[in-house]
Structure formats: C-alpha cells, structure tokens
Write a structure and sequence with these properties.
About 30% of the residues lie in helices and about 25% in strands. The chain is α/β, with parallel strands linked by helices. It is an enzyme of class 6 (ligase).
Length: about 200
C-alpha cells in the first residue's frame, strides 16, 4: 500500500470513529439540509443527484422527500458490477429502492431510468471529511471520484463542521467539490471564509 493510500486508510478509521461519536448529529444534519435547500444551485436544479445516507453520514432522506415534493427529478446512485463504477437512476419515491452494495439502498434496476450523461444539474456528494480546497476523504473505493471525472455536474459536498480540515491527503484520482455545506455555513473551496 502506497504512502497516501496508507495515510488515508488510517485517517479514515480515525474520522469514522469521530463522526460516529459526534454529538447532535440529527440537529447538525437538519441545519445542513436547510442550507442546501437555500442554495441557488439547488433552487435552480431540475435534476438532483443525491446520495442516500447511511449510519452517521449527514442525513439526506429529508432532502430526497423535499426534492420530490418540489417536483424535481431525483437520481440516486447504484454500484455497477465493475469495481469503482456507479451510475445514477431516477427515483420517484422510496418505493423505488432496494438493498444493494455495501448495505446501501439503491434504485431498483429495470424500474428506474438511468441518468443520461451530462444531464445532472446538481450532485450532492458524501464524504467522511473535506478540506478547504474541496477535496474529500471518502470510503476508499473511488466510486464518486470515477463518476465525477466522467460526468460534468455541479457538486456540493455535505459534511459536519468537525470534519472539515485545512488539507487532506490526496492523489491524482481525487476530485474536489465546487461547494461545501456544513452546519456552520457554506462556501466555495479556495475562497475567503471557506473553513
């Protein structure tokens, strides 16, 4: 295992434990949800790509329900057979989901139409941690980095403030987000006031 890969793996274990123990996660998630709903990028978006939260992640389920109620097209990720590859599929309700890879709920194949390349308006990106340049520490499988490298879409990372850092280890495959939202605020990476 290379140096950056080892460093990321160790940091991932530490930060996952920190996030799991973070007090007030539900309240912090609600603040993040409110900030997302107020973003100009979200308000303008017709097609929203949304991760379906699990465990101690920032809760996106209320965002799913809200986007559907607002008449937006909502797309959720599904892991494909090739390692590291995923695609987004349109969901019209929670009924369109079933258990999939890594214990995540995913769109039901054959029932949910796929997102066409370049058709997403906004992608809400999960991350264990983010840094001031918009780079994220994910779960180590590279799904979002591969997807974002192939799909032109505006990106917003969702993260608890306690997991926003000056700089995270990164390699050539990592893709930064265009905006980060925490319970304390939101900003574009690299701009004054970001972190």
């Amino acid at each position: 295992m290379g140096g950056v890969k080892k460093e990321k793996a160790a940091l991932r274990r530490e930060l996952l434990a920190r996030r799991d123990a973070l007090p007030g996660r539900a309240e912090k998630s609600r603040a993040i949800q409110s900030r997302v709903l107020a973003l100009p990028e979200y308000r303008r978006a017709r097609r929203v790509l949304l991760y379906l939260s699990k465990g101690s992640e920032v809760d996106t389920w209320p965002l799913l329900d809200c986007a559907l109620a607002q008449g937006k097209e909502v797309y959720a990720p599904r892991c494909l057979e090739r390692p590291g590859e995923m695609a987004f599929y349109r969901v019209s309700s929670r009924e369109d989901l079933q258990a999939g890879a890594f214990g995540l709920l995913e769109p039901i194949p054959g029932r949910c139409p796929p997102l066409e390349r370049g058709q997403g308006d906004l992608c809400l990106v999960p991350g264990l941690a983010f840094d001031r340049e918009g780079y994220r520490l994910g779960y180590g499988k590279g799904y979002y980095d591969c997807f974002l490298a192939a799909q032109p879409v505006r990106t917003v990372g969702l993260c608890f403030e306690a997991l926003a850092f000056e700089r995270l280890p990164r390699d050539g495959f990592d893709r930064p987000v265009g905006r980060l939202v925490t319970e304390a605020g939101d900003a574009r990476p690299g701009k004054e006031g970001f972190l």
